[in-house]
Amino acid sequence: MASIKNKKYNAAYDLLSRNIIKNPDKIAFIDNNEEITYNDLYLKVKAFSYSITNKNIHANDRVIICMDDNISYPIVFLGLIWTGIIPICINTLLPSKDYKYMIEDSDAKAVIISEHLIDKFTPIIDKNDDILIILNNNNDLKSLINQTIEYKETPYNSYGDDIAFWLYSSGSTGSPKGTLHMHKSLIATSDNYAKTVLSITENDICFSAAKLFFAYGLGNALTFPMSVGATSVLMADRPTPESVSNIINKQSVTLFFGVPTLYAALLNAQINSDLFKSLRLSVSAGEALPANLYEKWYNFLGVQVLDGIGSTEMLHIFISNTIENITPGASGKPVQGYEARLINDDGKVANDNEIAELEIKGPSSASSYWNKPEKTSITFKGEWTKTGDKYIRDSNGVYTYCGRADDMMKVSGQYVSPFEVEAALQTHEEVLEAAVVANRDNNNLIKPKAYIILKTNSKKLENIKLDLTNHVKKQLTPFKYPRWYEFVDELPKTATGKIQRFKLRTNNE
Ligand code: 3UK
Questions:
Q1: Cα(494)–Cα(182) distance, rounded to whole angstroms?
Q2: Helix, strand, coil percent content, the chain, rounded in steps of 5
Q3: What are the φ/ψ torsions at residue 475 (nearest 5 degrees)?
Q4: What is d(CA 82, CA 48) in angstroms, rounded to the nearest whole number?
Q5: Residue from 372, 385, 375, 384 nearest 313 by CA
Q6: How far apart are CA 481 and CA 424, in angstroms?
């Protein structure tokens, strides 16, 4: 929002203060065990903010949050921002080596983690490094939140375009990129998307299957409900059709946020539609929602599912369908406050009905990647941010997704690089060569498929598939494993020896 750019503005202060006069006793968050009012949230944020600064952590220091979704999460996230410390929200399912990279890359002063993740962190944190590990249990984090009578009353005197928090984004090659977001951006996504497209109000009960550590989940389950004084339901468990439908039913959820794979699983699980009767609207993002899934969901519940495209770099959704105007199978039109343009191979703005690369201008773009000037200059081109997506726009201004411009695939709404899956497969003793490509399942959703040249053919193929899957799951975030294997004698290659993945894709995509 232009009005808070360059002005004194603290995002945590804004999200809390707008509720403590209007809605002090309203429930802000509900998790598996407890609930918290806006007033108590406000007090706990200020208490945590006070106690964390007493740990010798100060404004502009970075602190990693690697926690399951529960009430401590918003307290920690907002408490750090309140005092000018920069939270970095990271995925709870990553392998240790990624945590090591992120701690080193960000020079984090502390990691705040769910207790069950301790074994992934202790081996990578050197005792001499002086990095504080704070566990989310009664002795550690809860005592910082609860056992203080002191509060940090005044928020850090930040500007709207100061950095408030980071998220990590992954690319097809190289390490994850710390994506730097400003104070003004959180509320910009609410004002432009949640209020306009979702018509969110204080009467909504929000539930996001996408966790808070994703930009998608952070908006859905923290910023949007707080921006209007609504209630957000947090679930620590893995989102399955059972856990998700139970929460929606039990908490009378009105606004539900999922990814296409979950909509497909929910439809497949043959759940009684009565469990969803409180829903007024559902949202899909992370990857394209095929038209047939949109139609099945609408026929199942009589509730719309709005597909919209967002990104970690833009923080939330910038092109979306709307309640009044839905084109099944398309992403829709730019959200209020955002502009889209398509740039063709000649570097020119494309015509209607021409496939070209999508760039976005809008109030919630990250400022840069941390310490990666080359990648920053490729993605952040002044006011325009490259998405890495190919799109087509029709004469009505509706945008339809046509695939990634790079090698990345989106699987269950999350990035997978074929190279990282190939590299993981190649470390298996029986694998000579591997190539991984996108393949569509029977819901028309993309999943990884591996073509493998084995060193010997001695092993039974069924066993080796399971073995390869377990091998990949041990090294990468588990959902990245190949869903199909094809054993071949050779892989198509260029004269210079590069695998021609497009040749493997043609039969399957
Ligand atoms: C793809 C989509 C087609 C597209 C995200 C909502 O997914 C989010 O962020 P990521 O950084 O990935 C960004 C990339 O994902 N994508 C996302 N949504 C769609 N493709 N249709 C869609 N509806 O390639 C994009 O560039 O993980 C989603 C809100 C915040 C987010 N960060």
A1: 44
A2: 35, 25, 40
A3: -95, -25
A4: 10
A5: 385
A6: 9
CA 27 to CA 41: how far, in whole Å? 9
Three-class DSSP category at 189: helix
The fraction of the chain above a pLDDT of 90, given in percent, is 89
User: Is pLDDT at 91 greater than 80 in this prediction?
Assistant: yes
Ligand 1 centroid distance, CA of 399 (Å)? 14
Q: Which CATH number fits the domain 2-393, given the four candidates 3.40.50.920, 3.30.70.240, 3.30.565.10, 3.40.50.12780?
A: 3.40.50.12780
Q: By alpha-carbon position, which residue is closest to atom 2 of ligand 1?
A: 287
**pLDDT tens digits for range 362-380:** 999 999 999 999 999 999 9
Please, what is the angle between helix 260-268 and helix 291-301, to 10°?
50
Q: Which atom of ligand 1 is nearest to the CA of 169?
A: 11
Question: Do 471 and 428 meet the contact criterion of CB atoms below 8 Å apart?
Answer: yes
pLDDT per residue as tens digits for the range 240-253: 999 999 999 999 99
Residue 313: exposed, middle, or buried by beta-carbon count in 10 A (0-12, 13-18, 19+)? buried
C-alpha 414 to ligand 1 mean position (Å) = 8
Domain ranges of the chain: 2-393, 406-508
Radius of gyration of the chain (CA): 23
Q: 429 CB contacts (<8 Å, ≥6 apart)?
A: 455
**Would you state the pLDDT for residue 5?**
65
Fold (topology level) of 406-508 = GMP Synthetase; Chain A, domain 3 (3.30.300)
Ligand 1 center–CA 355 separation, angstroms: 18
Q: How far apart are the two ends of the chain, measured CA to CA in Å?
A: 40
